[in-house]
Amino acid sequence: MEEGGVVIFPTDTVYGFLALLENRKAISKIYKIKNRPRTKPLAVFVKDLKMAKSLAEILPSHEKVFKKYWPGKYTFILNKKGRGTIALRIPKYKPLNDLLKKINKPLAQTSVNISGKPELNKIKDIKEKFEKGGVLVFDAGNLPKRMPSAIIDLTKHEITKIR
Fold first, then answer.
1. Which of 92, 109, 116, 144 is the S-S candidate for 71 at Cβ 3.0 to 4.6 Å?
2. What is the DSSP track for the chain?
């Protein structure tokens, strides 16, 4: 991953493409593999609230929401440090949480699929579609059909559910 690699890894929702947030080459590779429009940003996995605070402007009212929903299947859109927005999530899946602790860096992430198509949850389909493209696949077997994370916008005074 340090050298621009992309991995497919199981999460608490669906299989996801993961790359180091700081590695623009790897992020570009995800966009290319998924045929995803550049106007559609990737969400970011963080290991804890401290890491989230290093990336986003987090208010005390946000922390109350996070305590209720993190770790878990909720992605929150926040104002980014500097300018713009960022979508953050602390997952609730031990192997992924262990990975985040080990690398101690935020991971850009998105579901494993071609943009606009359903997420893939059968490992055979994932390997057939993406392994030849130089993507390392972590095989956790078939995942049950689950919804991707809920997306909640916390950038305004009113909390808005996007998905």
1. 92
2. -TTS--EEEE-SSSEEEEEETT-HHHHHHHHHHHT--TTSPPEEE-SSHHHHHHHB---HHHHHHHHHH-SSSEEEEEEBSSSSEEEEE----HHHHHHHHHH-S-EEEEESS-TTSPPP--HHHHHHHHGGGT-EE----PPP--PPPEEEE-SSSS-EE--
